């Protein structure tokens, strides 16, 4: 029998409030979550949702007003000063603005967290060089941060965050200042670190593409609460909350297409969602052969989400068997949403 993995990060009913002017503001409103070792856990929400506060609670920079925070099996309250320092080192952090020291070389930036360790100068240098190799930046060891691109700076920051062999890497909008191509290369690096080192990654973002590219599970935050969470592919297919839908729609540009299509005078519009094995085209083709129906594909987008294929299609259906053909699609495991439907007096 396989033992259930113990979560590496656990929040139990965590609340954080701040005093502001006369009132108080609730940055975390009874948040509970459990992150498994080796997981890439994404947290998405708009600005002000409480994401950074959640991160600060996890890395012990913020003491919760109430509730428990357990990291690596240790509750913050139970730690003395020395244990606390040690626990903090096991959590690496990267940020949107890299926070590198511009007067030090790349190598010195990476060596910095090792200065307090019992290492010889040579050992420290070797360790830092090995980390730079890991992020594919060895040849820039003697460069200064100002000479680097945004993507390279973030690689240095990642190497530095890994200096103390953390179990957990926390990323607070680490790709938000980068262009899409560089974002992807940083995400691929995080993914390979997750796989190579078994590093647990908590990834905060306001961009659903980031979640979609590398996260295993996702939590959606709004007004200090986690309003929805689950496996990425499942949340993508069956979002429960309006806010989640909004995020997903922006990712596949479906909203833009919908607005455009709605303005046309086409009737009987359907939104189809496919997941996993089902190949979109084949099901639609079969449907058109089986029924008296013409299917006009107005929009289609296929994407990889957490190893699954997720396809979205907007169809205009016409003919005498529209209802039966929609029923058929549903039987094939396709989710069908009616966007617009003409009232047919004869049906
Ligand atoms: N130190 C603080 N003092 C007062 N209010 C704060 C503090 N930190 C965060 N807040 C407030 O808590 C809410 C959540 O902030 P934050 O966690 O930074 O959100 P996010 O990272 O999702 O943008 C915001 O309304 C913010 O203004
Ligand atoms: Mg923030």
Automatic annotation (TrEMBL):
One of its GO terms (molecular function) is ATP hydrolysis activity. Gene3D superfamilies: 3.30.70.260, P-loop containing nucleotide triphosphate hydrolases (3.40.50.300). It catalyses: ATP + H2O = ADP + phosphate + H(+). This is Methionine ABC transporter ATP-binding protein. Keywords: Amino-acid transport, ATP-binding, Cell membrane, Membrane, Nucleotide-binding, Translocase, Transport. Pfam families: ABC_tran (PF00005), NIL (PF09383). Belongs to the ABC transporter superfamily. Residues 9-248 form the ABC transporter domain. Part of the ABC transporter FtsEX involved in cellular division. Has ATPase activity. Essential for cell division and viability. InterPro entries: AAA+_ATPase, ABC_transporter-like_ATP-bd, ABC_transporter-like_CS, ACT-like_dom_sf, MetN_ABC_transporter-like, NIL_domain, P-loop_NTPase. The keyword Secreted does not apply. It comes from the Bacteria. GO terms for cellular component: plasma membrane. Coiled coil: none annotated. It comes from Enterococcus dongliensis. GO terms for biological process: amino acid transport.
């Amino acid at each position: 029998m396989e033992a259930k993995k113990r979560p590496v990060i656990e929040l139990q009913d965590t609340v954080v409030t701040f005093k502001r002017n006369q009132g108080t503001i609730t940055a975390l409103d009874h948040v509970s979550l459990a992150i498994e070792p080796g997981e890439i856990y994404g947290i998405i929400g708009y600005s002000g949702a409480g994401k950074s506060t959640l991160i600060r609670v996890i890395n012990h920079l913020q003491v919760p007003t109430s509730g428990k925070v357990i990291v690596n099996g240790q509750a913050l309250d139970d730690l003395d000063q020395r244990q606390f320092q040690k626990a903090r080192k096991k959590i690496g952090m990267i940020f949107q603005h890299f926070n590198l020291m511009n007067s030090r070389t790349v190598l010195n930036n990476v060596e910095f967290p090792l200065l307090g360790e019992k290492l010889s100068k040579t050992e420290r240098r070797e360790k830092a060089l090995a980390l730079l190799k890991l992020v594919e930046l060895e040849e820039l060891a003697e460069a200064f941060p100002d000479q680097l691109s945004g993507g390279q700076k973030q690689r240095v920051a990642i190497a530095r965050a890994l200096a103390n062999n953390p179990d957990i890497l926390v990323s607070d909008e680490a790709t938000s200042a980068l262009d899409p191509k560089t974002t992807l290369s940083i995400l691929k690096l995080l993914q390979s670190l997750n796989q190579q080192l078994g590093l647990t990654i908590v990834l905060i973002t306001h961009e659903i593409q980031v979640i979609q590219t590398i996260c295993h599970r996702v939590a959606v935050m709004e007004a200090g609460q986690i309003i929805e969470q689950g496996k990425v592919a499942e949340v993508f297919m069956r979002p429960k909350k309006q806010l989640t839908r909004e995020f997903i729609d922006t990712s596949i540009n479906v909203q833009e297409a919908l607005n455009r299509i709605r303005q046309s005078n086409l009737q009987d519009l359907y939104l189809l969602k496919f997941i996993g094995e089902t190949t979109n085209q084949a099901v639609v083709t079969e449907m058109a052969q089986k029924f008296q129906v013409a299917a006009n594909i107005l929009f289609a987008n296929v994407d990889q989400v957490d190893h699954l294929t997720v396809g979205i299609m907007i169809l205009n259906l016409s003919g005498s068997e529209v209802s039966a053909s929609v029923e058929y699609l549903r039987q094939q495991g396709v989710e069908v949403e009616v966007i617009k439907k003409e009232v047919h007096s004869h049906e």
